Amino acid sequence: MGYLLPALAYLILLGSFVAAFHFDAKEHAPYPVDPLRHLHPAGQQLNLRAPKSKGVFLNNSVDLGYYVDITLGGKPFTVLIDTGSSDLWISGRVENSTDTGTRSGVTYAVGGVEGPVKTALLQFGGFTIPNQAFMEIPSDDKSKEGTGIIGLGPNSGSFIYRQLESITGAPVLDRIFHQNTTTPNYFTILLGRDQDPTDFFSGSITVGEILDQYSDILREPKVQMTDVPSYQSGDQHLQILLDKDGIIAPDGSRISIQTSVKHAATEQATVVLDCGFSLPQVPRAVSDAIYGRFEGAEYVTIDKVGGTWIVPCDQEVNVTFLFSGKEYRIHPLDMTMEPHLIGLESIKNSKGERSCIGTFQPFSYSRDIINYDMILGMSFMRNVYTLFDYGDFVLGFNTTKDPYIQLLSITNATEAHSDFVTVRLGGLDTTGSKGLIEPKKTNSASSNPRTVYYIIAGVVAFMIILVAIYFIVRARRRSARRR
Ligand SMILES: *[C@@H]1O[C@H](CO)[C@@H](O)[C@H](O)[C@H]1NC(C)=O
Ligand SMILES: *[C@@H]1O[C@H](CO)[C@@H](O)[C@H](O)[C@H]1NC(C)=O
Ligand SMILES: *[C@@H]1O[C@H](CO)[C@@H](O)[C@H](O)[C@H]1NC(C)=O
Ligand SMILES: *[C@@H]1O[C@H](CO)[C@@H](O)[C@H](O)[C@H]1NC(C)=O
Ligand SMILES: *[C@@H]1O[C@H](CO)[C@@H](O)[C@H](O)[C@H]1NC(C)=O
Ligand SMILES: *[C@@H]1O[C@H](CO)[C@@H](O)[C@H](O)[C@H]1NC(C)=O
What we know:
- There is one protein chain.
- The chain has helices at residues 4-13, 25-28, 159-164, 172-179, 284-291, 332-335, 378-381, 413-424, 443-482; strands at 56-57, 59-61, 65-72, 75-82, 88-91, 97-107, 112-124, 127-137, 147-151, 186-191, 203-207, 223-224, 239-241, 247-248, 270-273, 281-282, 298-302, 306-312, 319-323, 326-330, 336-337, 347-348, 354-358, 361-362, 374-376, 384-389, 404-409.
- It has 483 residues and is α+β, with helices and mostly antiparallel strands.
- The strands form 6 sheets. The protein has a 6-stranded antiparallel sheet with strand order 1-11-10-26-27-12. It has a 6-stranded mixed β-barrel with strand order 3-4-9-5-8-7. Strands 17, 18, 21, 22 and 23 form a 5-stranded antiparallel sheet that branches.
- The chain is elongated, with a radius of gyration of 28 Å.
- Residues 412, 414-415 line the site of one 2-acetamido-2-deoxy-beta-D-glucopyranose.
């Protein structure tokens, strides 16, 4: 109950959704640090080896953003892929473009951008789209020339579409599915792990086709996307239901999860799959259950990160998610993050142990209508090959096919464990040496037994003293008698 009250106060003070700070690639895009700095052993350009099959290469920027090359009006741009938004914007000027005479803006959980809406010939992933609408943002320190974001979310969330109110203003995927109705209405995403010592891919995106080596995804359960209420359609995301209490904590128990999405009329939590959000956002109780029982774990507030758990960097954190009864293991290298990867000084806990940041961060709401409980960002998405089927989300399609998501687990628990030992423990497996501590109890519960112990200890000490006095007195009397 302790932290419920401040959370409520927060709700009343602010009118809209806030993710406290929380590392969002959109805020720091693009390339916050030199992406090649933390790669694999020197000489091996492993990150550049994309899986051999279909799909367009994604450039992984230290696990904090995945970028694809596009051309607009004949000019190259490198843009962040983002399933959490629905507009294309770029930073810099596109000469071969037409100004629509309107302006638009996109707001994200953190920050936003604004500029004139133009149209130009887009080339993306082998597709050519004439007159694609986009927003042109002046380049500055934060948005470097030649960069931007490609929003892959549903058109109901598109600010440009709302502005232009015609197919011309539709997001890129709608345009692709619309101009060739034979192209299946889905796309897939595979995200690589920067420090992974055994899987050497950077990332891939496909539209209307599947990566050959992951074709098993088509046999996975189709998890229906859920709808937000129609008056909230601008907040529609690529979202599904997690199984009831569908997270297995490091102690092997299921975490009890209360959903805040009232209109969903289910006990299951609603989660958004967002490849534009670096660190996943979960309710505080969930992040407490994940990180709170490790020795040396502490909940702290870190500049630029906000309230977060830190755990000793050598602590392996094993967590599994469940969707449609299937298990999705999260790689321990995705559960905690070394602070230098986001340009922070090293962090120590109160015992002086080198500590890593818990990547599944607690977040709070500051709005009345809550449409999702968690944002499963990159740290989650690196563990699954994901297929997003747009179904009837596509503009002008006369279909009632429900949109769905299929998830193929690509993290093997045994292999992930040995990766963790290699990367964090220098090859020496010490993970068995640490136990879990009891969850912290509330004050009243823990002080009562302790008081009782003190009373018992006091009584015992008093009796020992009495007995000692008795023997001393008796011994003196005896020696007095002998004299
Ligand atoms: C990935 O991005 C970095 C930083 O911009 C760049 O130096 C590198 O050449 C890119 N790699 C590929 C294969 O595009
Ligand atoms: C404009 O487009 C043409 C081809 O469509 C291309 O040759 C030319 O380089 C482009 N100009 C600029 C400034 O990008
Ligand atoms: C339309 O898409 C199908 C399937 O992806 C492809 O075979 C065909 O060539 C495309 N047609 C055009 C005109 O691009
Ligand atoms: C859409 O489908 C419905 C039912 O199949 C049909 O009655 C209607 O005419 C269709 N509309 C268009 C524009 O094709
Ligand atoms: C995981 O990897 C180990 C070792 O590479 C292998 O023996 C095991 O069969 C794999 N498990 C699954 C479920 O693929
Ligand atoms: C994490 O899981 C792996 C694979 O199942 C196991 O070998 C390892 O001991 C586990 N680590 C901890 C700290 O529980």
